[in-house]
Amino acid sequence: MISYIQASSNEEYYQASLLFQEYAKWLNIDLTFQNFEDELRTLKEMYSGKKAALILGYDNLDCMACVGVRQIDEATAELKRMYVKPMYQRKGIGQSLLNQSLEFAKKAKYNTIRLDTLEHMTPAMNLYLTNGFYKIDAYYFNPEPNAVYFEKQL
Known about the structure:
Blueprint: E1 2-6, H1 10-27, H2 36-41, H3 43-46, E2 53-59, E3 62-73, E4 76-84, H4 93-107, E5 112-118, H5 122-130, E6 134-136, E7 147-153
Parallel strand pairs: 4-5
Antiparallel strand pairs: 1-2, 2-3, 3-4, 5-7, 6-7
């Protein structure tokens, strides 16, 4: 049975770091421009508190999915690192993660949530578009030429 939690323990943040690393390998792009190694070292600080969260999906004891929500500014959140292990994809888990992320962002009193993805990630783009996200101009530097930026009013 699939369950979702908001990370709070060191073990849960460790499990998230493993998923983040798997996600980075799967993306097959250099995430140095996002200070990825620093992010891995500071997950708990970056994704905790009243304005940030790291949501994990578990299938029994297997941590198989994650998504982060963090603050850009007082009114704007950013959705980061949504990842579902390949064997769990196409089962509605991405939608569940997105729903929980949006609920968290609303409770945290954000007005807007933003994200970036890559043009070739069609299932992710379709998920965002069907959930009311719309394309926007870049809100930060990304050297990947096929990066696409989205936003949603909450």
